[in-house]
Design goal:
- The complex is a heterodimer of chains A (534) and B (312).
- Chain A contains 24 helices and 8 strands.
- In chain A, the strands form 2 sheets. Chain A has a 4-stranded parallel sheet with strand order 2-1-3-4.
- In chain A, strand 5, helix 19 and strand 6 form a beta-alpha-beta unit.
- The model of chain A has no long low-confidence stretch (mean pLDDT 95).
- Chain B is an all-alpha fold.
- Chain B has a domain of 192 residues: Fumarate Reductase Cytochrome B subunit, CATH 1.20.950.20.
- In chain B, 63% of the residues lie in helices and 0% in strands.
- Chain B is built from 12 helices and no strands.
- Chain B is elongated.
- Chain B starts with a helix and ends in a 12-residue tail after the last helix.
- Classes of the chains: A mainly alpha (534), B mainly alpha (312).
- The interface between A and B is large, with 104 and 88 residues.
Amino acid sequence: MKKNFHIDDFTHPGGQVTELDPAELSPLPPPYDKREKPPIRKLTDEQSTRMDASLDGVVAIGLTPPKSPEEEKAFIDKFLAGIEKLFSTDDNWTFLQPLVHTLEYCVKCQICSDACPVYVSSGRQDIYRPTMRPELFRRIVSTYIKKEHPLLRKIKDSDIDLNWQTLARLGELAYRCTLCRRCAQVCPLSCDNALISREIRKVFSQQMGIAPKEIHEKGSVQQLRVGSSTGMTPAALRNILEFAEEEIEEKTGRKIKIPVDKKGADILLIHNAGEFIAWPENLEAFAIILDAAGVDWTLSTEIAGYDSVNYGVWYDDFQFARVAIRQSQAARALGVRKISLGECGHAHKAGIVVADRVLVGDLIIPRESSLPLLEEIVLSGRIKFDPSRNHFPVTLHDPCNMVRLMGIVEPQRRILRKICPQFREMTPHGVENYCCGGGSGFAITQSTNFPDWRNSVSGRMKMKQILEAFQDAPGPEVKKYVCAPCSNCKGQFRDMFEYYDVWEKSGILYGGLVELIVNAMADLKKPFIQWEWH
Amino acid sequence: MGTLIIVLTYIAYVFIVVVYTIKIVAWLKLPPHIRWDLYPVIHEENYRYGGSYYEQPEWWTKPRPRNTWRSLFYSLKDNFYMGEYFNRNRTYWLCLLPWHLGFIFIITFHILCFFAAVTMVGGLEITAGSPQLLGKGFYYLLLLTGGVAFVAGTFGSIGMPIVRLADRGLRTYSMPMNFFNYFFFLVVYGSGLFAWLMLDPTLEEYRAYWLGLITLTPPELHPLTVLHIVLFDIFLIYLPFTRSTHYITRILAYYFIRWDDEPNLPGGKMEKQIASLLERKVSWEGKHIPSGKSWAEAATESGLPETKKDTP
């Protein structure tokens, strides 16, 4: 029996608002229904002193408590000034209309709660309801920004006692939402509670200079400084590409020169740089397909031109715009006709859709997903395929950014139906899919015990979906493939499958779409997919 | 008393129309925002599975057919069906739908009353036994809309607080204002229901009231009918202070946020609007943002290797 939760519980200093009980987490199918270790590690004493974990015992940003009341006051004042800026056209034209709409018109009907995989997977912990963040936000606005009369606040139950810890918890809570926007999809009033998570993150970043270091300092800042969020320099990129060319020759017998900085090429292909480091087979497969199809393409070595990621889309409008602009500048410098984005969901949404209203003049260069291009190649007959080479169970993960948030649903399916005889869907799928659990920067956030939370809570629903998709062959003796055309989702699957020992227990491998395409190419002597856990 | 309700009714209608208009105009005047579309987008060709024009290679060279009628029908029909609630919380839906239908039907009833009164001035007899078909039609239509409004509104106003208190999530997010609204709306609909069932089963007094309104002739009405009319007028004045504009803004949000998939093409109107917004000065205080500079400058100057300031 859950204790009755009250919003005021959130603002009481000291203690922890919610304790996650492993027994309350939503059940997984066997053999994952029994866990020997606790799902989330406790922080060490040293970590607990240094970082506030009073929300749920988990740390994503880990704020350090203030040393004096003056410091606390300055922190609160600065935060409130940031909230005020969210309502200014000058500072926040980018999201003012959707923000105001959600704050004014959400009736807190809770219809979005059960659409949220985090809330449901957590055993329906009240703090994870999609309405929780907006409610706190609304109370802050009512009490400190609009300064509504105390009687009115009483009637509207919109009072809030602001202290440092409340804000620290709110900051953490903004990083318990994957921005998958399933909540917004079911809202009959078109409110978007996920957006509020992003707006809170924005205040922390744009006003306070606070964001998870993997996303800001080691993410977008590093990308703008070095060229890639991975830290990979253009020189390192060239080395990796040489290695990839050798691997292609070794695997396929084909000598392919991966084009780099080719002026006037038709397409600038931008991969998530994670592929170069962790999954080079993905960029190799792209090179094999485009070469076989005779496509005129190139990679770039310009800053941000070889890394499609744009972490700003999760937390900071300026970092977002900077990266989007640099990517367009890279394309302009090469004089390409269009930009095509490789297998990365958030890069799709950021580069194609969100950047659309930041780019002007000659920076408006046509941008598209690589999936329709791949579909055209696969279905055109330009390359011969032998689907029997993919004769193993395959299911498809829909990256939220690519599918629910930009409507690219069928091209990848038409490809899989053609080349994978045992393709089966997850339930639900398409625009109603569930997030992998690593969305909005979670897949790269590795601080303290956050990965435990990500694997056991935010990814739990996806884990269940995958297992259910393969329920006809649950054991490890039948090798199975989760096709995830998104680098971030793959990162989450890598971590989550390792966390649950999925390869050993169920024989499930994850990978991209292009690897399956190349694996089915009739004239390749050896299978391209190597059934090894990595 | 007759004069009072005529004046009060006019004030109430003018007030609600003016305040609603101000609110809607304020909503519409908010600046264009970054695209934040969410699929399915109903005017899209492949809306059934949530597909978009991005599914085509070189989408910018292809036509983007939009079915505006389909999207309009979709956005309006939910006011009468509330499908998400039906699918996700049937008990809540069972009270919420009548509560909302009460509102929709009482407004429809009043609009019909207005037109009925106009025809009455023109000599139409509105009774069950009217020799004119239109007169009969108005009679039964008024009976239907008024009856549904009073019954559904009363039922919804009783059911809503019960559901809200019984459901853990709804209870947590309830505020005193919710319960005041339920109570007040119950009094409004309940008084109408009582007057209709006990005093005025043919709604003759209502027609007389509306005839008096448009001819500016104070009508003679039963005190309980007057009480209901006064309460209804206060209800109209009160509505703009609630979230009731959501009947309209939810549709605007579909078109201007959720389904806003209009691309920014070179030389287009959108590009000009964006260029002008990029000139606005920003005041964010994060160390990586050059406060006081324009949005465009902040997005291009800082954060680059040669000019990067300290990171937080």
